[in-house]
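[Q] Does anyone have a clean structure-token version of this?
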Amino acid sequence: MTRIDPKEAARALNDIEEIVQRVRQSRTYDIASQMMILWGVLVFGGNIATFLWPRDGSYIWIGVNTAGALGAIAISMFRFPGAGGPGFDLRMAMAFIMFFAFGLLSSVVFGHFGPRELGAFWPIYFMLFYCLAGLWFGRAFISIGIGITALILIGYFFVGGAAFLLWMAAVNGGGLILGGLWMRRI
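[A] Here you go.
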């Protein structure tokens, strides 16, 4: 039997801890990428549907948000073994409800936003969540959040009329899909 000295043991333990951290981040990115792709497809479709049927926009977005929330719950319930605890976390659900309620209060009650403002506010508001998550879970979230926010603002200020919905489909929906695919490669 070979003995290792304390320095070698400490290095080995540090190596193990580094591997554990990388696996944990990989699992987080895997689950997040699934949710991003889900939401990206839904948001892309929601913007296209709103472009085609603008009078039904409120109903379209209620459907998109409902489908996205149910899909996110399904993804979180069927997390892979070892991903870090039980699949459904009631605290996360409550946090999402409070986040969404604050957004409604800000945009509908206090803001009285029109369709264009709502179309920019909600994605930027959710990108704030991505940037905040990035402070704990990795820079990819911050990059995606800032990148999509910048593109939304460009569209808000420079893309006129109904073309704004097509812009939003591309940069918000498409950005989430591309971001989710990128996170799978990290």
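[Q] Thanks! Anything notable?
[A] The radius of gyration is 20 Å.
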